[in-house]
Amino acid sequence: MCGIVGYVGNKQVVPLIIDGLRKLEYRGYDSAGIAVVNESHDLEIRRAEGKLRNLEEVIRLSPLDGTYGIGHTRWATHGRPTEENAHPHRDCSGRIVVVHNGIIENYLQLKEQLRKTDHQFVTETDTEIIAHLIEEYLKAERNFEKAVRRAMQDLKGIFALSIINADEPDMIIAVRQGPPVVIGLGDREFFVASDIPPILQHTRDVFFLGDGEMAIINKDAVRVTDFEANSVQPAIQRITWDPIMAEKGGFKHFMLKEIYEQPRSVRDTMQSRISLDTGRVFIDEMKNITEAEFKQFTSIKIAACGTSWHAGLAGKYMIEQLARVQVDVDYASEFRYREPVMDENTLLLVISQSGETADTIAALRETQQLGSKVLAICNVQGSMITREADGTILTHAGPEIGVASTKAFTAQMVALYLLGLYLGNLRGTLSAGEAKHHAQQLAELPVKLEHLLNESDDIEELSKEFFRATDFLYLGRGINFPVALEGALKLKEISYIHAEGYPAGEMKHGPNALIDERLPVMFINTREEGNRSSELRYEKTHSNIVEVKAREGIVISVLTEGDTMSATMSGHPSYRSFHFSFWLITSRCVVAAMSTNHATWQSQSPLSNKPTIDHRCFSVFAFSIAFPPMSLLK
Ligand code: M6R
What percent of the chain has pLDDT over 90? Predict the structure, then answer.
């Protein structure tokens, strides 16, 4: 992902843009650059390969200043991560500059055409052709805005752009066709960015551009049109996030901070939505789905990607048991390729932290075209998904800046649990007593999470034993199966260690062939005494633990506090969890190890960013999350 920051106003533009780019560092990058226009209308560019501080050094040695400008952090897709290929990119005159996030699919064809009219290219990027295309149309149109609009109509692919023409003072044009673009509205100053954090310390009034829209920004105003020049009324919103929430706040990196924010994020997501006295749930943010419709839906389809998909899979267990409605879960990236059967009695539930995931948006749109309603669980108000869905349950996790989803996942689980309770209440599948019991258990979660987050030392020790392992197997049964999948995803994503998640009961159908004395097998096996289905699940999984032990496998178990039976079998330190609750195991040390890993990762070329084995960190527990709310359910 690339990052874009732009500014028009009276502040010092260079430090503002550099600071903004720093807030987008989480997107990963291999080079950075900035273009500013000064009072004499001279356009200057500085670029550097590698870290942002390299660009700062370039600027220190060769300062520049201006009244407006655009900056960029690049993650190479077309062309090597060199200074030459770093954005911003220019046209032949050097007066038009472009920064770009995305991919232009037909850039080779456009480049060929432009060459015929004598355009000279100096980079290997797809972005450069955009500046030349605008230059070409400017010859005919003699109007920058019109030239940009015509150029947009030629581009195929996905792109977010910020564009400057030094001959149009104090103007930035921002364009969106796919990746997010946020516009910040200040007092005679305006901001453009790929995400909210760079803008937050300057203004909380923002709007997101929609697909096929462009914002024409100058010192006095912002105008939005579509690519056909029709005027568009932006949906301005006030961001309630505290700017401090988008800072690291003393933690080594954002992921660690966000893991520790879970008690707050879980609390905020459930707060004011559930009555402890009655167990009633209030979902009152619905634009276009009525209570009567919620009663009438005969099935729910869930579409999401990655971690959000895992949350959806866990949601299936919750909603089916609490509300007795059939739930199917799809990868959003597959949804539209299988001609889904939807009707007015089927609700599509999309889940997304960012609200901007292209496949999830595509699933939403396809469903609405088929005439069905779409409910969203989303963390970013004003994002494309919240704007287009018929109703949204917002997760209040706050900005999730770490690339690995952590607090957003647990907040999604809470939102799904609330939805299950809401439907259960509405459809009469839960008694008042049961509903109250669930509400009480949910209310206890934040405290339990806090307690668990304070107990990371055991895991620190355990992590040291396993950080050189090359493969892991994660097993769980029932709702612990999606949790196993999520644990495996986190291990892969953060530690670059191969990991598979499986339903524990599927082990005997193939995966057990892998088990030997070198393979750590991570069991998630929680239990609620007195709950028949929970005990059955526990006993069956315990048998799987015995089988792995019989094959000399290494067993690591995540168990309910006080469980000695599986702990004894595990042969490796097991860890405790709580009855009746989510639990999450994390470790300061493990995450500290991850930051070492991160440092190594950053010092290498991002195109070969695999750390060596010695630098691998072990984070099997860093985000092994178990969520056994089903143990609450009869
Ligand atoms: O923003 P979304 O929830 O739609 O993103 C979907 C996935 O890309 C995301 O959950 C991804 O799998 C996580 N960042 C992994 O930790």
Answer: 59
Please give the backbone phi and psi of residue 137, each rounded to the nearest 5 degrees, phi first: -70, -25
pLDDT tens track for 498-518: 999 999 999 989 888 999 988
pLDDT digits (tens, 9 = 90+) for 39-87: 899 999 999 999 899 999 999 999 999 989 999 999 877 888 889 999 9
Ligand 1 pocket check for 581: Cβ under 6 Å: no
Please provide residue 452's backbone torsions phi and psi, each rounded to the nearest 5 degrees: -65, -40
- Could you identify the atom of ligand 1 that is nearest to the CA of residue 406? 16
Angle between helices 407-427 and 306-323 (to 10 degrees): 20
Phi–psi pair at 233, nearest 5 degrees = -90, 110
Q: How buried is residue 287: exposed, middle or buried, by Cβ count under 10 Å (0-12/13-18/19+)?
A: exposed
Asked if residue 352 has its Cβ within 6 Å of ligand 1, the reply is yes
CA of 490, closest atom in ligand 1: 16
Task: Decide: 353 and 376 in contact? Cβ < 8 Å.
Answer: no
Kindly give the distance from the C-alpha atom of residue 420 to the centroid of ligand 1, in angstroms, as a whole number: 22
- Do the beta carbons of residue 601 and residue 583 sit within 8 Å? no
Distances (CA, A) of 195 to 110, 127, 181: 29, 20, 7
Backbone φ and ψ for 38, nearest 5 degrees, come out as: -95, -175
Distance, CA 276 to ligand 1 centroid (Å)? 32
Query: Average pLDDT in the 279-306 region?
Result: 94
Cα(273)–Cα(469) distance, rounded to whole angstroms?
43
